[in-house]
Structure formats: structure tokens, C-alpha cells
Amino acid sequence: MPTKAELKKLANPVKLKVRRGDKVMIIAGKDKGQIGYIAAVSPKENKVIVLKENPENPDQPLPLNQVIKHRKAKQQGERSARIALPSPINISNVMVLDPKTGQPTRIGRRKEGDNLVRYAKKSGEVIKTDDSK
Predict the structure, then answer these.
(1) Is 62:54 a contact under the CB 8 Å cutoff?
(2) Cys-Cys link to 118, which of 35, 72, 77, 127 (CB 3.0-4.6 A)?
(3) Residue 107 half-sphere exposure, CB side, CA atoms within 13 Å?
(4) Which domains, and CATH codes, for the chain?
């Protein structure tokens, strides 16, 4: 039987400040200072996957906070390979970039008209979501 605290957590899910497609800067870890965009968000685990654009091949983005997986050759003619996979990073280790200045900023939410919008705390600029990535 779930405890009262667990039931409360299930009833009121935490609202996250980041969304898929946001431009972010990593502020902690081995890729500190790198800029990319959020490819996936996992609210249950408080994790995000961050990718950055690849100038050589725009269709194949590069993973940030990557881990190397070694794949052994299964057949005679096949080669072994080292594959770079994106590893999830905690939401607290990324900050959304201000659309006006390009600097990392905290995010607030305010009501404009009928809808709730996210805005950058540094400049007050509304953050538009780009889910096309």
C-alpha cells in the first residue's frame, strides 16, 4: 500500500521548467559550459537528454554528456565499433538560455491573457517553445 507522501506526489506532478527543444547550457559535470538543445525530457526521473548541432552533418546531432559503448563484432566480416550514446543528465545541471541575451537564466511562469507562459527571469522575455527538433 502506498504511503500518504507517495500518493500526494502522484496526485500533484512537479511542473518542470524545461521543455523539449529548449536551448540550454550545461552548468555542471564533464560537459560544463557546452550549449545544446533538449531532445527528450523524463519528468519521473528529473532527467533530460541534451544534443548539439553537428556542423558537418545536420541530420546527425552530437550527444552531450555522452558515454562510449563498445560493440563487439558478431560475424566474421563485421568490425567492432565504439558507439557514442547520449546519457541522461539531471535537470538541475542545465539552465535555459535567455532568448534576448543568450546567457543562462532561471525560468518563471506568468499568466498572459488566458494562457500561462514561461519567461526568462533576467530579461523578462517570453520563451517560445520549438518542438520541431
Answers:
(1) yes
(2) 127
(3) 23
(4) 4-98 (2.30.30.30)
